[in-house]
């Protein structure tokens, strides 16, 4: 038997924080390729600490629904899952290339745990960002005439946070699909507050590389960009700011295609997922078109 465990941050303050995790778990569950699919959280129940004990499967694939490598993926999750002998060097990562490592857990017998890198740094995440741009504009061919901004939190405490943003920005730029592609940040330069200064295009899609909508994506960023003076009154999509139409997408992690990234992470670690990746990609494209 094989099981998938999606681990995410969750929140005591934002009840919607865990919604994307549950949604993507349901999509994977419906694909029918895992005997068990579980979710676990740092700030909500069920907690990381308990989840392995709830499984009957002997092969377990753990996929962190986090944007970047860092404190949670390298310290908190391995510690709380009691992954015996985990060392971040096993990932041999440059900050965006963690794939998976195979371990056992000290407090559950007979289980092989394949601990994967975060969903946010997988190559398939690039496709999710582009899909997010398609969703917010309602145009499956969006690109020509448009700029695209990939927005991250940015923090001096974790250089990998910006690495993930730059990684996907460069990959999208290489597609040569959008007229301009830039990485912008909340807490470091170049800042999203000045988004219109970084683009010449009349239309700019702004996609925050966050897992869930919350304080930053629904209050800080819209107000900082000038979409609204008060987030409680909402904003139009697009909203014109300084002569530029801003198509604000909200958190990329809410895009249904994220389930594909989770599946690809598990497949890369050795999970037998059959043709589920292709089926999920097709299903989520149809859902987005409805």
Automatic annotation (TrEMBL):
InterPro entries cross-referenced by the UniProt entry: CbiX-like, Sirohydro_Cobaltochel/CbiX
GO molecular function: lyase activity; metal ion binding
Organism (species): Halosegnis marinus
Classification via Gene3D superfamilies: 3.40.50.1400
A Pfam match: CbiX
UniProt keyword list: Cobalamin biosynthesis, Cobalt, Lyase, Metal-binding
Name this polypeptide is given: CbiX/SirB N-terminal domain-containing protein
GO biological process, one term: cobalamin biosynthetic process
Keyword Lyase: yes
